[in-house]
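pasting input
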Amino acid sequence: MAVTLADIEQAAARLEGLAVRTPVVESAKLNERVGGRVLIKAECLQRTGSFKFRGAWNAISQLDAAAAKGGVVTYSSGNHAQGVAAAAQLKGLPAAIVMPADTPAIKIASTKAYGAEVVTYDRATESREAIAMTLAERRGAAIIPPFEHEHVIAGQGTIGLEFAAQAKQLGATLDDVLVPCSGGGLAAGIALAFAARSPATRVHTVEPAGFDDMARSLVSGKRERNAAATGSICDALLSPGPGELTFAINRGLLGEGYAVSDGEAAAAMRYAFEVLKLVIEPGGAVALAAVLAERLPVAGRTIGIIASGGNVDAGLYAKIIEGRF
Amino acid sequence: MAVTLADIEQAAARLEGLAVRTPVVESAKLNERVGGRVLIKAECLQRTGSFKFRGAWNAISQLDAAAAKGGVVTYSSGNHAQGVAAAAQLKGLPAAIVMPADTPAIKIASTKAYGAEVVTYDRATESREAIAMTLAERRGAAIIPPFEHEHVIAGQGTIGLEFAAQAKQLGATLDDVLVPCSGGGLAAGIALAFAARSPATRVHTVEPAGFDDMARSLVSGKRERNAAATGSICDALLSPGPGELTFAINRGLLGEGYAVSDGEAAAAMRYAFEVLKLVIEPGGAVALAAVLAERLPVAGRTIGIIASGGNVDAGLYAKIIEGRF
């Protein structure tokens, strides 16, 4: 395996005191509703508002000075952008981020607030990887990809180490863990950590309906791609297909993948507002949505879910909580 | 003192496994903004969406069968209502709650969802205590007042025990703790706990401007009352004056009291949405508001704040996060 438990443990040591050890939240009301026990790893409370700071810092803190003399470059739908921008700022490196032009304004504004330069592109017609590569070459900067990178995967895996330990402290063994999935780096890291620390736990991806490339790839055994590049409110989960590295890890470790509709994601956001009091963005709410929509058996079981981010524009959030979506 | 550390410790034992040991949330962005360290005790993540379950369960779990043969009755602007309704349901007792007619709909709906009967009254012209007393006498029910009760104060004090221990675990000693204040039960409980466990910490109330009866009472040395009964978005903090019992505790233990405007409370809610990813209601956000508005010195200090609840109607929340308030 290209990423080991030791890599994840070392990432945890690098993140100590910089990343938030996010709390595990439990709601009596939610447990009662589903007839099981649901533990929520609230990564929306992470530095930068999503889990992405973990992988970004683990990668950027290990860069050698020569490779990063021109700073760092990445491409991202918004959360990895903020993670990289914040990590680069901490490390004292300039950052340039290639972001889709239709990214939620809050994500662009926050990325700039960490001192990064933002370069926008058209999600439907341009290649973000090509733009980033050109930028990086011109500047002598290192590329920090959003998921297809061992240090990034190891960083995201620290969530799994924490979650397994926190569940144990709560007297629980997680039967299943549901992970929002785009390129598959978060799922890969978490699956590696659980395989080592809680092997009875089955890790599953949750994707937006129509963008369930990972679920289909797990079934077919080869990397499938999505038909569309846009068309879901889950802006964080629209990667065109699994990474080569992430899929190599995930195919060996993951259980069945699930998909939820935009309406189900919005209902989960509304539930999180009304009952949990957590701000969760559309893509961050898909795992909760899968539980609320009973995409898998929950009654009598203990289910872990990752609430992976909370970076959502006020306008969309207002619509969703008022039931206008 | 009518409430002792032992009472609070016993309350903590009664709440074990029923109340949430709410997380302490810290934000690098917030720390940077104020130039100090801010630790947020997120009681909005508590069972029923506010801290009130603690005091309600501590009181109701100790009721003897004869006193409560007709169940329990209380009066509340909404959060204590839900706390009592949920605690009564757990204990298998019927509950009747006297609530202002202008209470946010989410609070009335949630109270009913816990199986309680809701009786509304006019906040400006009727006496909720009188209505509750008549109801309780007719039914043979026990009254669980929102703050003027030793068991209620001891229950709220468990927040102080947890917060002092959690701060210590984070390597911090809190210089000041800011507590949203209405009748003063939360502040009294927390002040008692800190006096015992972290005596260097100074506990302060924060109230809505125009409803700063506790702050004025601390200055004058006698219980002052508010001129108005309505007129702030902080619906949870409109009690007409300090309780006799709560003031007797608070006058000996509290530092200066602060007040914030509705605009400052709304700005704090917006900040919690954008940066912290916590849903906080107006009254629950006043302590954060006092920090953001620098009502006290924060630079170079470690400040604890209580985010006391998150029960806010979607319509008002939408207005506030979109800057339409």
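fyi Chain B is about 45% helix and 15% strand.
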